[in-house]
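Support case: pyridoxal-5'-phosphate complex. Customer-provided input:
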Amino acid sequence: MPVNYMFGSDNHSGVHPDILKAIVSANKGYSIAYGDDEYTKRAVRKFREHFGEDIDVYFVYNGTAANILGLKNIASSFNSIICAETAHLNVHECCGPENFIGCKLVTVPTQDGKLTVDLIKPFVKGFGDQHVAQPRVVSITQPTELGTVYTPAEIRVLADFVHKNGMLLHMDGARLCNASASLKVGLKEITGDVGVDVLSFGGTKNGLMFGEAVVFFDKKLSKDFVFIRKQGMQLASKMRFISTQFETYLSNDLWLRNAEHANRMARLLYEKVKDVPEVKVVQRVESNAVFAVIPRECVSRLQEKYFFHVFDEEGPVVRWMCSFSTTEKDVERFVETVRETLAKKCLG
Ligand SMILES: Cc1ncc(COP(=O)(O)O)c(C=O)c1O
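Agent response - structure generated as follows:
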């Protein structure tokens, strides 16, 4: 049986048919380059419908660029950026923030991927001391890299603390739609309305072919972003092909329908897998991922059938992820395979 990739990551899913249709339909004739086109104007309008009239938004190709360039725009090389130890920014961006911004990343251990005021307080210090990296940004991920979700109230508390200290709040929202679907609140209510200053808004993991956005909730903050994006090599010449995807994604609730479905499949996976002997789910299932400890000796056996990431060698903690294209049948077959593989005790 060939290895199945469907629970390895939401990045392993394909492109939603409506998005593909939009790309094909944009592939007609000529259109001005670099974002001065009608597709981009319409996509920006859609962003304003969801995030408010006062935002600025810019498109880039991928999530790493959205994070690093968005942060570069608001932090200098003498600043520190505080994030969870598990943050994508820290673990999976290959020192990109340190390289492109030159800043110090201050990483905070957490139980569930979520920062709190108590956790970050010890690192918010040294203001004005020329010997010390100046705290400038707190970056949170919504949902977190562990699949947990901040409530709007939790974000508000963090934002108030951050602002009181003259800092800014950045959100890595590579999967923001999954958080919105989980909380049953709009995109603006968990971002700009609760004090987020700069947002990386994801599309790829929830049905786009490629394309992410950097959203600024205060236009003063975006003043230099076009230059930073160009220097950062993320200015798409044929921008219409990103823009048309976002226009479609933010229309007719496609973003929400896809995210609700992915979350529902993860919930189903949790319900079915939690009763399998020797599987211990170790994080709350609040978005589209299930984190579980399984017997070490079974990991590679199961990976021969289904690809998945070991998130933490301690445990070991593995991550199973659902997407907009996961089906109930997929979940049932997977859980059956988990059950069979673990029942064999994997003794070679
Ligand atoms: C939370 C989070 N942020 C950012 C990214 C970066 O996305 P990309 O791989 O498109 O650079 C990812 C990718 O998996 C992610 O999980």
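The domain at 254-343 is CATH 3.90.1150.10 (Aspartate Aminotransferase, domain 1).

Case will auto-close in a few days if no follow-up is received.
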